[in-house]
Amino acid sequence: MSVTDEEQGSRIVSASREVRAAAEVVFELIADPARQPRWDGNDNLADAAEGQRVRAVGAVFTTTLTRGGVRENHVVEFEEGRRIAWIPAEPGRTPPGHRWAWLLETVDASRTRVTHTYDWTRLTDEQRIPRARATTAAQLEASLSRLAALAEQR
What we know:
This protein is an alpha+beta fold. It has helices at residues 5-10, 23-31, 36-39, 129-134, 137-153; strands at 12-19, 45-47, 60-65, 70-79, 83-89, 99-108, 111-119. A seven-stranded antiparallel sheet has the order 1-7-6-5-4-3-2. A hairpin with a 4-residue loop joins strand 3 (60-65) and strand 4. The chain starts with a helix and ends with a helix. 25% of the residues are buried.
């Protein structure tokens, strides 16, 4: 499938917010999959086992979805305390090409600018396109709000 520049731009959804917490506090909530269901604004994640804390590109962590499916999440970007991204796939399958990413920028010792991005420019599974198209900045903002609430409690 060929994608025009206009279509390509509409296949990247992003939201940002400042969180009143240090970058390492926020990053720990993202990089530890067992904590992700607590802040997932898509209400898509049901569970993730303890002991899967991401530490490098190439790591794979597993999550269980609210509808019962399981996803293997392949980490494609990682910089401790600053950047993490993964592409999900059904167990044992090639990832279909959509990517979840987080960028943390330190504002000062107690504030962090967090940007959450969903990029489906490389999504190859036609059956997933309606769900990808339905992923909005509002859903990403919901994740950011929940993440901020958790981080700011600490």
